[in-house]
Design goal:
168 residues, mainly alpha, 6 helices, flat, TatA/B/E, transmembrane, translocation
């Protein structure tokens, strides 16, 4: 940056006092200060934006490396599973004496039948919950089945007013 020492600042201040005048010098100095502050904030914003973009680039690079590593792990696991399943099928075919280990007909010849699919109830039992308590039971025990406003509830449970009293 610009190297401004005390002697250079004093010289600039003296020249400004002579050129601008003592009446307008404080206003000009305030304006220059505001402009310098804005310039510093602008430079700081630009630096922050550059740092953010650099960090974003680094994060993208790390994400790519992580995805590559995950893809490699997935491929190695699928390869191992495939190898294990082929070994199992080979061992099964050797044990059963059949070359068609995954053939359902060959399995049926050895007395094995696949289990029949069973019905699985969906876990939505809101009908069951809703109709579990009979309506007559709710009415007898005062269970509210309809929403009521606060004013309606007060009016419902307020004791009845007596006949108008005569005032003397």
């Amino acid at each position: 940056m610009i190297d401004l020492g005390f002697d250079k600042l004093a010289l600039i201040g003296t020249v400004a006092l002579i050129v601008i005048g003592p009446e307008r010098l404080p206003r000009v100095a305030r304006t220059v200060g505001h402009l310098l502050g804005k310039a510093q904030r602008y430079v700081a914003d630009v630096k922050a934006e550059v740092n953010r973009s650099i960090e974003l680039e680094e994060l993208k690079k790390m994400r790519g490396e992580f995805e590559d590593a995950a893809r490699n792990v997935e491929q190695s696991i699928s390869r191992e599973v495939h190898d294990a399943s082929t070994e199992f099928e080979q061992a099964w075919s050797d044990a059963t004496g059949s070359n068609r280990a995954s053939d359902p007909e060959a399995l049926a010849d050895h007395g094995w039948e696949p289990p029949a699919p069973q019905y699985k109830h969906p876990k939505k039992n809101w009908r069951l919950k809703r109709g579990a308590v009979p309506q007559w039971y709710k009415q007898r025990h005062g269970v509210r089945t309809r929403a009521q406003s606060g004013a309606a509830r007060v009016a419902r449970f307020r004791p009845p007013r007596a006949a108008s009293k005569a005032r003397p």
